[in-house]
Amino acid sequence: MIFSYVVCSVPAAPIRSEATHHSQMVSQLLFGERAEVMRQEGNWMYIVCAWDHYEGWVLAGQVQLLSFKEYRKPNKYLNTTTQDRLISPQGAVLLSPGSDLFGLKRSVFPWLDALSKFKGKKAAVSSLTTSDEAIRHAAMCFYGSPYQWGGRSSLGIDCSGLAQMVYKMINIAIPRDARQQSEAGETVGFLQEALCGDLAFFDDAEGQITHVGILLDNATIMHATEVSGGVVIDAIDNGGIISVKYKKRTHNLRIVKRFL
Q1: Which architecture characterizes domain 4-71 according to CATH?
Q2: Above 90 in pLDDT, residue 113?
Q3: Residues paired with 212 in a beta bridge
Q4: What backbone torsions phi and psi does residue 145 show, to the nearest 5 degrees?
Q5: Percent of the chain at pLDDT exceeding 70
Q6: Is pTM beyond 0.90 here?
Q7: How far apart are CA 96 and CA 152, in angstroms?
Q8: Cα separation of 152 and 131, whole Å?
């Protein structure tokens, strides 16, 4: 049963596995992204995210309540650079690329307040394309971002979060976790046939999918990795990823999937 509807009012709200700050951050709700609230315990809300249906606990103070009428309206704009800001009387905060500019009207968000204004570059969702140029632009917005388990923002992101956000910036929804992503899309038979935007998945010694990266071409991959500490561009061959930084193989290739 749906308890209420909310929209994220901070740059990135941690989604946790339990209703406590001591629990693991499993994902993030970015500014302007909406969710259904299934129940509430004190200051914590258990939500289901509208974009990817991911579930977890967020702080009630980091979201704003919406009516169902407001909630069901489509989002028309995304922000597209690392310099986009939300300016308020208290100061300015950066918004991560790919955040929803939900309800934006003349730089103001009616659901937030009349004093907070968006300053930056917006893109109409209806104008987003799946071209190689668009994919590379989206990917480069996160290049150099630090690695953070559960992260989806340019201030901290994990491997599957990077894949999901790049696809969000070309208006394609894919699952949140690497294992879930590997079960979607169409299989590419050989790495040599891979195209820009294909996702490469990697497994551990037990055969479990543990990592994902975005192919820029059939020999180059961008990925968020704790090995290198952030989002990097490395070489890839039939055996897997070869770290440019460490001059060694770091991940074993399992499968390549296409979502376009």
Answers
A1: Roll (2.30)
A2: no
A3: 201
A4: -65, 145
A5: 100
A6: yes
A7: 9
A8: 22
